[in-house]
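Researcher: Next entry: LysR family transcriptional regulator (Salicibibacter cibi).
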Amino acid sequence: MEQRQLVTFKTIVDVGGFKKAAERLGYAQSSVTTHVKELEKEMDTPLFDRLGKTVILTEAGKRFYPYVDEMIQLYHQSIEAVRGDEEPSGTLTVGVSESLMIYWLPKFIPSFMAKYPAIHLEVKAIDYQNVTQQLKRGDYDVVLFVEMSGWQSNELTIQTLTESKLVLVGSSTGLNQPTSEETMFLPERSCSWRPVFEEYVQKAGERSGKTIELPSIESTKQCVMSSLGISLLPFFAVKAEIENGKLLQSEIGISAEYVGIYTAYHKNKWLPACLTIFLEELSSVKNKEL
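Model: Predicted structure:
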């Protein structure tokens, strides 16, 4: 039983098919089929039922699956144990939300890379709606994202790095106190602080101004700085513009006015040394307001 066979088996289950597993792993589909056949020969029982294009685990496959992840993790643990005190190394895949990718992570990456040159970071945008499944499949080792303060998940191990206040912003020539005639730029519906914005709009009462949904913080900022309207954004995303006078801020006056910046990984994940170090370095910003 080889480690690559176990990885292939787990990937087929996680992504839902031989072809998708081959694409994920960079194998020819025939190689994936061979790995499975070798496993089934060694186990002396079928692990998958192949029903046309649909692949499902047999009862034996279902019993085998929980042990596969443990064996893969044990393999990596044994490698690290042999390496002992060598310089931390390896590839770390980090999923990051758009706002942190642009405004927050670039401040952290240079110092981390200088301190740990043998750790290779692969930074990818997260699919926010499916982040738990992506962590379970192993798409990312860890994710960094923005959510409302106090966010929790039963399937993930979560660390709160810091919090950032939500502020109402307008152009330097416009915002003193927002009026009912002004256009409001809303984040897309999947945005974590969209409900806070909707609460603010409801509290503000009847309005004659338009509400326009925009897909990103950067597009929202540009519209606001062009005096086209106002918006509600995390302070870390507009700090520079407020400090240099390009944007003015106003308090929103509602209870849920902070968002948290979190790290998360699957609760069953074994932590390689490179991930442990990454989390420790990130914790240095814990409790610092952005």
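Model: Note for the record: Residues 3-83 form a domain with the Arc Repressor Mutant, subunit A fold (CATH 1.10.10.10).
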